C-alpha cells in the first residue's frame, strides 16, 4: 500500500538516515462517522538526507487514502481569515490579469481577492468544497505535467500546498513547463523552521512530508527557472509569502553544507521536547482525579500528542471550532468531537492544547466561555 520515497527530494541522493518513527499513526487527520475498526494506521517514519539535510517522510501514504475528503484545515478562525486577506493583497500588488490557484480548497482566497479586484480565477483542487460566495471556475483534479488550461494565466497561485507535494522538484519542473517566461508563481507556505524551533506540534506529518525551510524553497526556485522577486512574512510564526517570475537566465543555487547537522539537532530536540511535555501532562492529569479533561483540536495536533504517548483514558471529548466536525469521531481514536461551548458550566475543566500559532487566540475564546478553565500546553 505505501509508496517508497527512499531518495532525497532535493538532490536525489539515496542517503536517507532514520530520525524518528511513530508506530501506527492515523493516516487521515480529520473527523469521520465510520467505525474506528475501518481506520488505517501505519508507521510514520521521518528520515534525514546526509547530503542536503532535508527532513522527509518515507514511506508515503497513497494520495487517494490520504485525501478521501476535505478535513477543514486552514478554514476556521480569525488567524486564517487574516492570512487569506493578507495573501490576497500580496497577490493583488502584482495585478495579474488571470490566476490559476492550485489546491484552492474552499475557494476563500478567490473570494478575498474578488473583494479587491475582479479577474478570471480558476481553482484546481482534488476535493473541492467551495463556499457559496466563491465565483471562481472550479476544476476537480491534481496539477501535473499533463495539465493544460486554454489561454494560460498571468500567475499560478497556491497557499499551504507546497509542503503537501510528494515530489517538490517534479512539481516545480511541471510549473516551469506550464508558466510562460515573464509570468509569475505566487505562493504561501508555513514558516516551517520557526514552527519546529518553537515546537509547534502540527509541522511535519503524513501530509506535510518535507521540511521546506526558506533555504530549500529558494534553492528549488532558482534551480527550476524561477527568480525570487519578493518574500513577505505573515506574522513571525505563521506563513511566508513568495513571488517569483519565470526566468531562464538563472545561475545555479547552492545549499549550506551545515544543514545536515543543524536540522538533525533541531528535529531531535523537537522530539525530546514533546516526550517530556507528554510525561508532564500525563502526570498533571493523573494528579487531578475528578476533574473533566478535554483535548483541543480535532486534527493532527491531537493525533500527534496521542502518538507521543498522551493518556486519553480521562478525555471526555475533543474540542473544535469547526461545527462540521461536531458529533464525529477523531480518526484513529474513539474520541468524539464537541464544541468549546461544552465547557460552559463545568467547574475547573482541564484543556490540553497545542495549537501552534493559534493557541493564544483559542485560549482567549475558551476563557471567555469558562474563566475557570486550566490549560495544559
From TrEMBL:
Pfam family, one: Methyltransf_14
Any one Gene Ontology BP term: methylation
Source domain of life: Bacteria
GO function terms (MF aspect): methyltransferase activity
Residues covered by the C-methyltransferase domain: 286-368
Keywords for this protein: Methyltransferase, Transferase
Protein name: Methyltransferase
Source organism (scientific name): Pseudomonas kuykendallii
Amino acid at each position: 500500500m505505501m509508496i517508497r520515497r527512499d531518495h532525497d527530494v532535493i538532490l536525489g541522493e539515496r542517503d536517507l538516515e532514520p530520525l524518528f518513527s511513530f508506530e501506527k499513526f492515523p493516516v487521515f487527520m480529520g473527523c469521520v462517522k465510520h467505525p474506528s475498526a475501518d481506520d488505517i494506521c501505519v508507521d510514520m517514519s521521518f528520515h534525514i538526507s546526509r547530503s542536503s539535510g532535508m527532513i522527509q517522510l518515507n514511506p508515503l501514504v497513497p494520495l487517494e487514502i490520504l485525501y478521501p475528503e476535505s478535513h477543514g484545515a486552514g478554514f476556521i478562525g480569525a488567524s486564517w481569515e487574516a492570512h487569506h486577506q493578507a495573501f490576497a493583497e500580496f497577490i493583488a500588488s502584482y495585478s495579474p490579469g488571470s490566476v490559476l490557484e492550485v489546491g484552492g480548497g474552499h475557494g476563500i482566497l478567490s473570494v478575498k481577492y474578488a473583494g479587491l479586484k475582479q479577474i478570471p480565477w480558476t481553482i484546481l483542487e482534488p476535493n473541492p468544497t467551495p463556499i457559496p460566495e466563491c465565483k471562481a471556475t472550479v476544476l476537480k483534479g491534481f496539477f501535473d505535467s499533463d495539465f493544460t488550461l486554454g489561454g494560460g494565466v498571468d500567475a499560478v497561485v497556491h497557499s499551504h500546498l507546497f509542503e503537501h507535494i510528494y515530489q517538490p522538484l517534479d512539481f516545480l519542473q511541471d510549473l516551469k513547463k506550464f508558466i510562460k517566461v515573464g509570468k509569475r508563481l505566487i505562493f504561501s507556505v508555513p514558516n516551517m523552521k520557526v514552527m519546529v524551533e518553537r515546537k509547534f506540534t502540527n509541522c511535519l506529518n503524513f501530509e506535510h512530508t518535507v521540511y521546506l525551510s526558506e533555504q530549500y524553497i529558494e534553492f528549488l526556485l532558482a534551480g527550476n527557472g524561477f527568480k525570487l522577486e519578493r518574500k513577505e512574512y505573515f506574522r513571525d510564526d505563521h506563513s511566508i509569502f513568495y513571488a517569483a517570475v519565470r526566468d531562464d537566465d538563472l545561475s545555479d543555487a547552492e545549499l549550506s553544507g551545515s544543514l545536515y547537522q543543524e536540522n538533525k539537532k533541531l528535529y531531535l530536540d523537537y522530539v525530546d521536547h514533546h516526550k517530556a511535555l507528554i510525561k508532564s501532562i500525563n502526570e498533571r492529569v493523573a494528579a487531578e482525579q475528578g476533574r473533566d479533561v478535554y483535548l483541543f483540536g480535532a486534527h493532527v495536533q491531537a493525533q500527534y500528542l496521542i502518538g507521543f504517548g498522551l493518556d486519553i483514558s480521562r478525555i471526555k471529548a475533543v474540542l473544535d471550532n469547526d461545527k462540521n466536525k461536531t458529533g464525529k469521531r477523531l480518526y484513529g481514536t474513539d474520541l468524539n468531537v464537541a464544541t468549546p461551548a461544552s465547557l460552559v458550566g463545568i467547574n475547573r475543566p482541564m484543556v490540553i492544547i497545542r495549537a501552534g500559532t493559534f493557541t493564544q487566540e483559542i485560549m482567549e475564546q475558551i476563557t471567555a466561555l469558562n474563566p475557570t478553565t486550566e490549560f495544559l500546553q
